[in-house]
UniProtKB/TrEMBL annotation:
Organism per entry: Gossypium mustelinum (Cotton)
GO molecular function: pyridoxal phosphate binding; transaminase activity
GO BP, sorted A to Z: systemic acquired resistance, salicylic acid mediated signaling pathway
Protein name as annotated: Aminotransferase class I/classII large domain-containing protein
Database matches in CDD domains: AAT_like
Similarity comment: Belongs to the class-I pyridoxal-phosphate-dependent aminotransferase family. LL-diaminopimelate aminotransferase subfamily.
Keyword field: Aminotransferase, Pyridoxal phosphate, Transferase
Length: 441
């Protein structure tokens, strides 16, 4: 491999090198005031920018990326072949297809319902196929509007908060707390088994909840999710449940919020083929909106979401949906599970490595992320120190909210040899007796 190239290749936009400010003639159109409230750059492009700067400083460095959660293992051949065959058929009169249903291919909707929701009686008509769960987060924000109040886990995936800021729900940013004034931050940590204390959590209209959680890797237990559903029912709230990492659950933790009785009346579930099937670049996901879920006036939420989808989306790629169907075939599903097991073994190696260094490590069992604690340290400093001394990319925990200020997130989405190499670099540095994080306090 050529020197100066990341061991986990990724596209780094040229615009990250230089951000030239416009100096031409201004229009009379004001900037969206909500966009002005966003803090700094979006987390993952910022990390890519810092990686690029590091490579400019150390052009011969072999950087290992354990940061952005991009999958690295090839898509199983039978799945990629199904997409290739579909694409080739588009060049024939019989195989050509144009627009499909905005809600998704009926066969795929049925396969998703039968594969993931058979035991909870979700109908295929309640499944909406999309181009990924992150896109669906924004569509749900359009559905909900700017007047609702929201709660998020702290730490949590930054897309929930940033989309709330853009739509106008968040209010002003508070420098002192590192929080937006109109967002309720539900603190997660080892002190509460990574589940919020709902007895002191104020009522909000919407609760964003991810399990297994990104970034902590914690999968909520059945008892915890029962408490969450009961809390939502008592308060008349709607849960937006993100199950993008459910395939990594190894124990008896629920893989869907709809395994909890009563959840269909208070929850929407979003999920994705990205981390489940390696579709990060293919782009395919889904959202489940139960018919039982109603707005305060009794109008079914599913009808409005259907209108949002039909207005703002022309449907997922037919080629990607052909791949999705192949993923859910018996052979495809088995092949995907083997890849998931590969990443889970990577996670175990990382957990063991950080634990051997005497650090507190969480996650890595039911999720492809490892959450490492550095008490009294700032996460961006930890990120910078690890990058400078080991050429390893991580993710600073504060990028997921103030609750991540003393943590870093490590991704297990990597080649095994790179995971082992990263572990060796950390252990080698530590074994020399050097204080690995000597300038973090």
């Amino acid at each position: 491999m050529a020197c100066g190239i990341s061991l986990q290749p990724k596209m780094v936009l040229a615009s990250l090198r230089v951000r030239k400010q416009g100096n031409g003639r201004c229009t009379n159109v004001p900037r969206n005031v909500n966009l002005e409230k966003l803090q700094n750059n979006y987390l993952f492009p910022e990390i890519s920018k810092r990686e690029l700067q590091h490579l400019e400083k150390y052009p011969n460095a072999k950087v290992i990326s354990l940061g952005i959660g991009d999958t690295t293992e090839p898509i199983p051949e039978q799945i990629s072949l199904s997409m290739a065959n579909y694409a080739r058929a588009l060049s024939t009169a019989d195989g050509y297809r144009g627009y499909g249903a905005e809600q998704g291919n009926q066969a795929l909707r049925k396969a998703i319902a039968e594969t993931f929701y058979k035991d909870v009686a979700i109908k295929d008509t309640e499944v909406f196929v999309s181009d990924g769960s992150q896109c669906d987060i924004s569509r749900l924000q359009l559905l909900l509007g700017s007047k609702v109040t929201i709660a998020v886990q702290d730490p949590s995936f930054p897309g929930y908060i940033d989309s709330s800021v853009i739509i106008g729900q968040a209010g002003d940013f508070q420098d002192k707390t590192g929080k937006y004034q109109n967002i309720e931050y539900m603190q997660l940590g080892p002190q509460n088994n990574f589940f919020p204390d709902l007895t002191v959590t104020p009522r909000t209209d919407i609760i964003f909840f991810c399990s297994p959680n990104n970034p902590t890797g914690h999968a909520a237990t059945r008892k915890q999710l029962q408490q969450l559903v009961e809390f939502a029912r008592d308060n008349g709230s709607i849960i937006i449940f993100d199950s993008a990492y459910a395939a990594y659950i190894s124990d008896d933790s629920p893989k869907s919020i709809f395994e909890i009785p009563g959840a269909k009346e208070v929850a929407i579930e979003i999920s994705s083929f990205s981390k489940f099937a390696g579709f990060t670049g293919v782009r395919l996901g889904w959202t489940v909106v139960p018919e039982e879920l109603l707005f305060s006036g009794g109008f079914p939420v599913i009808h409005d979401f259907n209108r949002i989808v039909c207005t703002c989306f022309n449907g997922a790629s037919n080629i990607a949906q052909a791949g999705g169907l192949a993923c859910l075939s018996p052979e495809g599903f088995q092949a995907i599970c083997a890849v998931i097991d590969y990443y889970k073994e990577n996670a175990k190696i990382l957990v063991d490595t950080f634990a051997s260094l005497g650090l507190e490590v969480y996650g890595g069992v039911n999720a492809p992320y490892v959450w490492v604690h550095f008490p009294g340290s700032k996460s961006w400093n930890i990120f910078a120190e690890i990058l400078e001394k080991t050429h390893i990319i991580t993710v600073p925990g504060s990028g997921f909210g103030p609750g991540g200020a003393e943590y870093i997130r490590i991704s297990a989405f990597g080649k095994r040899k790179h995971i082992i190499e990263a572990s060796w670099r950390l252990e080698k540095l530590f074994s020399k007796g050097k204080p690995l994080f000597n300038c973090l306090k």
